[in-house]
Design goal:
Elements lengths: L2 H24 L2 E18 L7 E11 L3 E6 H12 L4 H5 L15 E5 L2 E8 L2 E8 H4 L3 E9 L2 E10 L2 E8 L17 E7 L4 E10 L5 E5 L6 E2 L2 H14 L10 E2 L2 E2 L3
Parallel strand pairs: 6-13
Antiparallel strand pairs: 1-2, 1-11, 1-12, 2-3, 3-4, 4-5, 5-6, 7-8, 8-9, 9-10, 10-11, 14-15
């Protein structure tokens, strides 16, 4: 066998191994719906266990067709995108926030919205748990006539109570989509800024992009095998697991420097 033939065979082996790996990674996900808009939020929050120390991380709200959306950490978005194609879009790499490296938020939990329903998925060890709730049952928005300009958008104020705290949201009708960070949705416009009155938790829209490509929102196939439980059982499991690794589970929005837990 000539050296040229050996090189050709080696090339074919490398090609088939690479193709197999890419296909295997892609098979981990399902396509949910065409992706229309991506909204990147900066999240500033105070660690419940610290002396007024604030941490920073970033989250991505992917808004699709048919009243569907996905909310996850920027880190999870990059990981999923790489697993899908062994590549990450330049836009996603270019978008960066000066995250506090001393307090990484390695989120595995994701929220999916379909119409009025929000489905929570969270990995706890090797298990995946999920529960569903209605936006209408958790948020009772009161819209004010007060307006101001935030991040270049004309915004209007709305308030709601959630988790023993009162939150102020500033939404814009310039982006007439009833979406926002985490589970704060249902207003007649995209939420540009959201915070509790103590400003322990602050979401700020920092980047918005409308997409005209064929990109889609993806969901892990493993979520199909999640254990569906009610909200109380869900938090009970999280509490027990988090205690096992010496973490505290806060009672309101559910923030500490190790993750944002669904409440």
């Amino acid at each position: 066998m000539t050296k040229l033939s050996q090189h050709f065979i080696l090339f074919l082996l490398i090609y088939f191994v690479f193709t197999f790996c890419v296909c295997a990674q892609s098979s981990l996900y399902d396509f949910l719906t065409p992706l229309k808009i991506e909204a990147f939020y900066r999240f500033d929050f105070k660690d419940d266990n610290s002396d007024n120390t604030f941490y920073i991380n970033s989250f991505v709200l992917q808004i699709g067709a048919d009243n569907k959306s996905k909310f996850s950490s920027h880190e999870k978005l990059l990981s999923d995108e790489f697993n899908m194609s062994s590549n990450v879009s330049k836009d996603h790499l270019n978008y960066t926030i000066d995250d506090n490296s001393a307090a990484p938020l390695n989120l595995q939990s994701e929220l999916f919205r379909e119409n009025d329903q929000i489905i929570h998925y969270n990995r706890v060890g090797f298990d995946i748990y999920s529960y569903t709730e209605s936006i209408a049952t958790i948020l009772d928005w009161k819209i004010s006539n007060e307006k101001k300009r935030i991040e270049g958008y004309v915004c209007q104020k709305a308030t709601c109570s959630y988790g023993n705290k009162t939150y102020e949201a500033w939404f814009t009708k310039q982006v007439p989509i009833a979406e926002g960070p985490y589970k704060f949705k249902g207003l007649p416009g995209l939420i540009v800024k959201l915070y509790d009155l103590d400003k322990d938790y602050v979401f700020t829209l920092v980047y918005l992009k409308k997409l005209a490509s064929n990109k889609r929102i993806i969901v892990e196939k493993s979520y199909q095998n999640s254990t569906t439980i009610n909200k109380n059982a869900y938090h009970s499991i999280l509490t027990k697991r988090i205690k096992n690794i010496s973490l505290n589970l806060p009672t309101e929005l559910g923030c500490n420097r190790y993750g944002l837990h669904n409440h």
